[in-house]
Design a protein that fits this description.
This protein has about 325 residues and is of the alpha+beta class. It is built from nine helices and eight strands.
């Protein structure tokens, strides 16, 4: 009996170790195996489809792969091994079919013919109500006109004297001067408030807390962007704006970016016509561990948390 119990515990222990090893292996794969992406863009104005875009992302030797293409198929497809687990065009077709069915039901119910006697009775009732409303409106208008005439006769405007006109003029002038005074005071208060805010935030930027937070966060973010940035770029672009001056400005910007782009992208100018054509191929990878590491360091940085509180005025 004891040997059987020990054998069962041994088997359970082996199964638990296998499960833990599988989970640990999968977690390590997710963290350290990068997601590779490819972006291909093609544009040609003379073709039937002037522009085409294809984005592909794969993970762990294409075990999971996702493809987005436009406009030839215009769909997003996600596969696990050889099995399609998601396809956007099929999902849209299903939703559209259900919506179309509901719309057809509503239209069919709305288009049911009503019985003729009921329609005639409703029309007679509407005509009677409209006639009664018109009669009541005419009576009310006559009464209102008579009352208005009596009111005008009883309250006829009296001629104001010259002294009262001067008094009203100076009264209005004084109210205008008061309003100008209040508006100037409000503007001064707002300017003082803005100046105080500027001084407060300048002090925060000059503080040691900001300097330490900026040093840590900027280093981590730039490192993440460097790891995400494409490892391979190839492209050739024919570009023209129709204006030689603006086309020359584009070439000047390309010249400034040449140390970053290098020989990977060739730009051919067209000084006569307005055109953008070419091909672009981008390839890179993203590691989950790098993104999680950056998020962890930035989120738990004490200086950054204190800086956020200072910017929200929650800390002195």
């Amino acid at each position: 009996m004891l040997s059987v119990l020990l054998m069962i515990l041994k088997v359970l222990g082996i199964i638990i170790l296998i499960l833990l090893g599988t989970i640990l292996t999968f977690a390590l794969l997710v963290l350290f195996v990068p997601v590779r992406y490819r972006i291909m863009v093609h544009r040609k104005t003379q073709e039937e489809i002037p522009i085409s875009v294809k984005i592909k992302a794969t993970w762990f030797w294409h075990v999971i792969n996702a493809v987005f293409s436009y406009p030839e198929a215009a769909f997003l497809r996600v596969r696990l091994f050889c099995f399609t687990i998601f396809r956007s065009d099929k999902a849209n077709d299903a939703t559209e079919s259900s919506e179309d069915k509901e719309k057809k039901k509503k239209v069919s119910e709305a288009e049911l013919p009503a019985s003729k006697p009921l329609v005639q009775e409703q029309e007679h009732e509407k005509e009677a109500v409209s006639q009664a409303e018109n009669e009541s409106e005419t009576v009310g208008e006559k009464q209102f006109g008579a009352d208005n005439r009596k009111h005008k006769k009883n309250h006829a405007p009296k001629k104001k004297g010259l002294l009262s006109k001067f008094v009203e003029f100076f009264r209005k002038l004084w109210s205008v001067i008061k309003n100008i005074k209040y508006t100037i005071l409000k503007i001064c208060d707002k300017i003082k408030h803005i100046v105080k805010n500027i001084q407060y935030y300048v002090k925060i930027i000059q503080s040691d807390t900001f300097q330490r937070a900026w040093a840590v966060c900027s280093r981590q973010v730039f490192s993440l962007l460097k790891s995400i940035s494409p490892r391979k770029i190839r492209g050739s672009v024919l570009i023209g704006t129709g204006d030689p001056a603006s086309t020359g400005q584009i070439l000047a910007v390309y010249g400034m970016l040449y140390p970053l782009l290098g020989n990977h992208i060739d730009i051919v100018p067209d000084f006569e016509q307005q055109i953008i054509e070419g091909d672009l191929y981008v390839k890179g990878k993203i590691t989950v561990f790098k993104a999680l590491k950056t998020a962890w360091i930035v989120y738990f940085n004490k200086d950054l948390r204190r800086l956020i509180k200072l910017l929200k005025r929650e800390a002195a």
